[in-house]
Design a protein that fits this description.
Distance between the termini: 63 Å
Oligomer: single chain
Helix content: over 70%
Order of helices and strands: HHHHHHHHHHHHH
Number of helices: 13
Length: 296
């Protein structure tokens, strides 16, 4: 987060706070589309009460830090991405209890199980290191690129190592003990968030569609796990505790797919331009050589 903060500029952050159209659309989509998607899929696939609650809690979570990483990989607007993540985390303090109460009314004590402390800690872990990064970029900008490269490299190495360790130890078990319907929902929910976020931002003619898409499609899965631990005893939640793990796997895999697709399209678009520039340079060189020969 310090590294990501080094990519942010105070002037741009102020601009998004003064004119919060993009932030507002992303936040409304985050707490509108994702809970509705979770609720609809649970009804459509006829999940049981506990399964439905687990899926819905995951859909109610605010944006997570992964969205900031994906925005960077998609060459999105980092300032907007972190502002959206921060705003959705702040609003989650009120929106999560409200949404859980409205959609899951009838499940005893569930609306009181939202971990306000966990959400506050998540907010602090976003704002403090990002603030340090912004300060570094403002005071000593010559060091910001170095810090960004080092920080993101360390993060990538740690992420790969953790994925390998989890895959080796529990990867097969997680998918064996989880029903095919829950796996399907874990795949469809983030995909729907990415697509709807992109379509919505394009509809409103915003030039930050990629950033809003990943912000809508990415949930803070750590909060989901915390709520499941706080709200339900282990004997009641059982294998459903593994649903957020499967969800984050699909969230990452689908985001990586879109990143690769974006990079490939970017190369295809740049290739004709490079060819045209090269041909133009050749023509200029030929004309220059021709005029110099005639002078001789």
């Amino acid at each position: 987060m310090v590294s990501l903060g080094c990519t942010m500029e105070i002037s741009k952050i102020k601009n998004y706070l003064i004119r919060p159209k993009g932030v507002a659309i992303a936040v409304v989509a985050q707490f509108g589309i994702m809970p509705l998607t979770a609720f609809s899929l649970a009804k459509l696939l006829q999940l049981g009460p506990m399964e439905s609650v687990t899926v819905f809690i995951c859909g109610c979570c605010p944006g997570g830090n992964l969205s900031n990483i994906f925005s960077l990989a998609l060459q999105g607007d980092m300032d907007l991405s972190i502002v959206i993540t921060t705003c959705s985390t702040v609003l989650a303090l009120g929106m999560m209890p409200l949404l859980i109460y409205l959609y899951c009314h009838g499940f005893s004590n569930l609306e009181s199980a939202v971990p306000f402390t966990g959400i506050t800690v998540a907010l602090i872990l976003i704002l403090v290191p990002c603030g340090i990064g912004i300060l570094i970029n403002y005071r000593v900008p010559q060091y910001s690129k170095i810090i960004t490269k080092v920080g993101l490299t360390i993060m990538l190495i740690c992420f790969v190592v953790i994925c390998i360790l989890v895959g080796v130890t529990d990867g097969v078990t997680i998918f064996k003990v989880t029903s095919s319907r829950l796996v399907a929902i874990a795949a469809l929910m983030p995909l729907n968030g990415y697509i709807c976020g992109y379509i919505l931002s394009t509809f409103f003619r915003l030039n930050m569609s990629r950033t809003i898409a990943v912000e809508v499609g990415c949930q803070n899965i750590q909060l989901c796990v915390t709520i499941l631990k706080v709200a339900f005893p282990a004997e009641l939640i059982g294998r459903l505790y593994l649903f957020p793990v499967i969800y984050i796997v699909f969230q990452i895999v689908e985001a990586i797919f879109f990143i690769i697709l974006f990079r490939c399209l970017q190369r295809l678009r740049s290739s004709p331009k490079e060819t045209n520039v090269y041909r133009a340079e050749e023509r200029v060189a030929e004309e220059t050589n021709g005029s110099s020969n005639s002078d001789i």
